[in-house]
Specification:
Chain lengths: ~220, ~475
């Protein structure tokens, strides 16, 4: 865009390179993973737990109790949430009846420019996730205006809520079934655990820049 | 450490070999990485199949490279990402500078990017009075100490925690001395979170750019990459033009190969896929996203069917970890941005043989790099080709500076060798003379150098032919 001549010159060289005339044999991929529902849940939970994700498998109607229990236990002061998504309104309802020892709910409603300072002080942020992937043990997020990108990154703890029925065997399966090629969101994320580093003598430390803890609630 | 000092490889190697601490740090680190990779790919049949698939995917991308780059540009532009092309690193630096100036940004926060190292962006911005803040923990450490990365994946791996403790204590105001790695990490978190929150422009590299959807994919563990690409108002991504791949379905196998080979992980903590700037109604994310596509010699590599394979590289760094030379001398000794086996084939092609051809000599040709490379780059073959081009006996060199080592004495020696081996008579005389005089060859010149750290070969008294004639052949 900025420099048309550079673009033209580079492309001209690439076209003249002869690369387009080469033959490339196809190589088959290793056979895909295929697990039943329970095995998918188990594998995802196992892989994510192995890299320090705190995984809780709960009954769908008991997840809010679990959340409250965790919130009290961990002593969060402020919990960031998105009020316009189903888990958001459910949390509001649950918090309405009983607030004893629970964190204050903070809604992410304005643009980050008006909210940055607060955001960087948040103890925890809770988001829904689009799906899980069993093969590599990740949750997949497509942040939306209702649950923006920084909710899963800036607060000290990220709580992710996953429905067990949305776990795919593999990323390849998810990309194909959901037809990602038809259009990608602003940002898509795979998350497997809390932020970590091993840059000093390979000593593993969690919470270097992103969340120090990842709590995964799998609703079954 | 490379870029500022004149490059004297031999001197660097001698220095590195004499540094016991460095060698200890490296040995330990590389053993861990090699082990982790082995654990994450326990099934060799699966791994070999995956490597073949990775090779095919990347070769398919190179076959269509010009078309894919055009498609990437079209799709990125459609998504609102602004695409820039740079012939060389000076142009790429200028593009970043212009963006910073336009936004009146005194500093950028940087995620880990080898292309930005290739651009020497930090030094360039510094000369312009602007600041580049490295935010990957390893990069942060070495930037504080005014060093460059010694490994493309774990940049501060040559430092142990005592050294990091001293650097933090000296260079970060009000920082008590601590060797506790958790505390050291917490210090970096505290310092850098402020920088993320304040920065107007963030910079990142790109692991894969997907032409089909105009998507930039980044992998990382720390979250600093996500910070740099999400918190500031502007995100600038820089990539070498070989990073483009055809479609999303190419991602899963390449991702598996990359994270498994690089750090022995099934997957990294984060895989961050960016397809557009903040859309209206969205509450965060940069309002502008720029993609800088850099050539810097890559299109030249593409023109040669053999050297083209250099562009298959996904920068996993596993060839470094498995290289007996790298493990002993570390990254800085190579004197250039890309160390280890990949550096030995990449740098001479980028910088010319005269300036960097010596790197191709730093290999025992043991073949380990070629055996582990996730996309099956035949690195040893390319090293051999570069060595040949340095002499260019037949005048066919394609790399700049080809034939720079060619000299009359050596040409004559090879001519003589060729002659002797073509004529049975001369060959017979030669072997007999070698048997008689072999021990008395004076150790001067290259022979002296060679024998300084090696026992000199013993020449047998009589040739194999003669022995066979005298003793007969035992077929057992
Ligand atoms: S050459 Fe192969 S092994 Fe080395 S960094 Fe590139 S992809 Fe990895």
């Amino acid at each position: 865009m900025s420099n048309h001549t550079a673009r033209e010159r580079i492309l001209a060289r690439l076209h003249a390179s002869g690369t387009e005339q080469t033959e490339v044999p196809d190589a088959p991929l290793p056979p895909p993973l295929s697990l039943d529902r329970d095995a998918k849940i188990e594998r995802l939970a196992e892989l994510m737990a192995a890299i320090r994700t705190e995984v809780h498998i709960v009954d769908t109607d008991a997840w809010l109790d679990k959340l409250k229990e965790l919130a009290r236990e961990k002593g969060w002061k402020r919990l960031l949430y998105g009020p316009e998504v189903p888990i958001g309104s459910a949390i509001e309802t649950a918090w309405a009846s009983d607030t004893e020892g629970l964190p204050e709910l903070v809604a992410y409603t304005g643009p980050v420019e008006t909210f940055k300072e607060d955001l960087f002080q948040m103890d925890a942020g809770i988001t829904s996730v689009r799906a899980g992937v069993a093969e590599t043990g990740v949750v997949v997020l497509w942040p939306t205006p209702h649950e923006p990108r920084l909710m899963s990154l800036v607060p000290t703890v990220h709580v992710a809520v996953l429905d067990a029925d949305t776990i795919y065997n593999s990323l390849a399966e998810m990309i194909a079934v959901e037809r990602w090629a038809d259009g990608m969101p602003t940002n898509a994320l795979l998350i497997s655990g809390p932020s970590k580093t091993a840059d000093i003598e390979f000593t593993l430390v969690f919470g270097v820049h992103g969340p120090k803890e990842l709590v995964l609630l799998i609703r079954k | 450490m490379g870029n500022h000092t004149r490059f004297d490889f031999e001197h660097n190697v001698t220095g590195a070999l004499a540094d016991d601490q460095l060698r200890k740090n490296l040995r330990k680190a590389m053993d861990i990485l090699v082990d982790k990779r082995r654990t994450v790919f326990p099934d060799s049949e699966y791994l070999e199949q995956l490597r073949s698939a990775g090779n095919a995917i990347k070769r398919r991308a190179l076959k269509q490279l010009p078309r894919l780059l055009e498609q990437l540009e079209v799709n990125c532009t459609k998504n609102g990402i602004q695409v820039h092309w740079a012939e060389d690193t000076a142009e790429a630096n200028r593009i970043v500078l212009d963006i910073m100036r336009r936004h009146e940004a005194p500093a950028i926060v940087k995620g880990k990017s080898m292309v930005s190292e290739e651009m020497h962006l930090n030094r360039f911005l510094d000369e312009q009075g602007l600041e580049a803040v490295e935010t990957d923990l390893g990069e942060f450490i070495i930037q504080l100490n005014h060093e460059t990365p010694s490994h493309i994946i774990v940049p501060a791996i040559h430092k142990n925690k005592d050294e990091v403790a001293a650097i933090f204590h000296d260079k970060i105001p009000d920082t008590p001395y601590t060797e506790d790695v958790e505390e050291l990490t917490a210090i970096a978190r505290r310092v850098l979170r402020k920088r993320f929150a304040a920065a107007k422009v963030g910079l990142s590299g790109v692991n894969f750019a997907i032409a089909e959807t105009g998507t930039l994919l980044l992998v990382e563990n720390e979250g600093n990459g996500r910070m740099c690409t999400t918190v500031p108002e502007v995100h600038v991504a820089v990539m070498g033009l070989e990073k483009v791949i055809e479609k999303l379905s190419d991602v899963p196998p390449l991702l598996r190969l990359l994270t498994g080979s690089a750090t022995g992980q099934v997957i990294t903590t984060y895989v961050n896929m960016i397809s557009s700037p903040r859309k209206s109604g969205e509450k965060d994310g940069p309002k502008e996203v720029h993609l800088v596509i850099l050539d810097n010699g890559r299109s030249r590599m593409l023109a040669d069917p053999e050297f083209r394979q250099t562009l298959l590289c996904i920068r996993c760094g596993t060839c470094l970890n498995h290289c007996p030379v790298y493990v002993r001398i570390g990254g800085h000794a190579y004197g250039h941005v890309y160390p280890g086996p990949i550096g030995k084939i990449l740098t001479p092609q980028m910088e010319g043989l005269e300036r960097a051809g010596v790197l191709a000599t730093a290999s025992s040709l043991c073949g380990a790099c070629g055996e582990v490379c996730p996309v099956r780059i035949p690195i040893p073959d390319l090293i051999r080709r570069l060595r040949n081009e340095s002499y260019d006996q037949d005048g066919s060199a394609v790399v700049e500076g080809g034939g720079y080592k060619k000299n009359l004495a050596e040409t004559l020696v090879w001519k003589g060798w060729e002659l002797a081996n073509r004529s049975p008579l001369l060959n017979g005389i030669g072997t007999r003379l070698a048997g008689k005089l072999g021990k008395r060859i004076p150790r001067v010149g290259p022979l002296k150098k060679w024998t300084r750290v090696r026992t000199s070969p013993k020449v047998a008294r009589c040739s194999l032919h003669e022995r066979a004639r005298n003793e007969g052949v035992n077929n057992e």
